[in-house]
Amino acid sequence: MEERIYLSMLLSTYGSLLTEKQVNVMRLYYDDDLSMPEIAELNNTTRQAIHDLIKRCHKMLLNYENKLKLVEKYKRNEDIKKDIKDKLYILKDKIQDKDNVQLIDEIEKDINSFSI
Amino acid sequence: MEERIYLSMLLSTYGSLLTEKQVNVMRLYYDDDLSMPEIAELNNTTRQAIHDLIKRCHKMLLNYENKLKLVEKYKRNEDIKKDIKDKLYILKDKIQDKDNVQLIDEIEKDINSFSI
Fold first, then answer.
1. Tens digit of pLDDT per residue, chain B (116 long)?
2. Could you tell me which of A11, A1, A114, A5 has the C-alpha nearest to residue A58?
3. What is the predicted ipTM?
4. In CATH, which of 3.40.605.10, 1.10.10.10, 3.40.50.2000, 2.60.450.10 is domain B3-68?
5. Among A79, B43, B76, B110, fewest CB within 10 Å belongs to which?
């Protein structure tokens, strides 16, 4: 996975553990693709301060993932989810009974409501 | 949910964010039900030091849950999992075709392999 996308996922997952200012700067850098001088100007600070903040937060996010592995789990669960959905489609295709098809639709909805 | 069980769940979920010593003391207190003086003796320290450590870690665990809500999600996902399994049983009961039953068994296995 591309580094920038991965960092964006880490930020979505662990952003609540950072301060509002840290998240704000990280989003400008990783999601909005702004340069460090641009972010420094927006925050009325130096390029060096932004560089240090990004570096520190980067390290914190990798550390959280290293310990909790939520992004790794998320990716694994996404694969399982896709697998289940594929099987439900096959099953639905092979079943005629209307009530059973409805039950499968409900299972699919349940699968989508998992927060992973 | 009983306070002690809840704390035990928080500890299993966020223990990797604490130090080894902190987890050790918290497990003795919440899982093994030892008293503070007993834990103090085992750790060759004072009851007050253990009291402070437990209080601080308790606060940290609640803070992590307040921000990441992993235990809350876990409980919600467990309910969804149970719901899906109930529906799969109903479906299996109503289906005759052997291949379809096998497909349902596979879906059930997938559901169990979710790490939530």
1. 688 899 999 999 999 999 999 999 999 999 999 999 999 999 999 999 999 999 999 999 999 999 999 999 999 999 999 999 999 999 998 888 888 899 999 999 999 998 87
2. A11
3. 0.87
4. 1.10.10.10
5. A79
